[in-house]
Amino acid sequence: MTANKFDRKQIMRRAWSLTRQAMRPFSRALFAGFLRRAWDEARNAPVTPWPVLQRWAVVSIGSTREEVIRQLQLSLACAQGQADKYIRCRRPVDAWARQKRSSDMMRVANIEACLSREIAARDAHAA
Known about the structure:
This protein is an all-alpha fold. Helices cover about 70% and strands about 0% of the residues.
């Protein structure tokens, strides 16, 4: 999904799903409210795909962009704490230690990339 393109079919499906879940008699006003809610959910959905978010942070499906940003910030703080221990260490001598160091550093870089993408999307939506 690009910046201004939304999957209208999915939005309508979500609106109808919300209407059915309400278990109230159908009315145009009720459906219109659920359609607005579905559009709002689509606008505030994270731009990073869910499998990627699940790899770098504990994010439940259906979370808003603000919740995703908060979780990514927490994950980044933990990953940076883990990576900071390598600043005080000498170079690793065995292959396992080099691989662990590299994976910890890449984790920080990947979380930073996801976080910057989500913040840019939030700021673009707010403007």
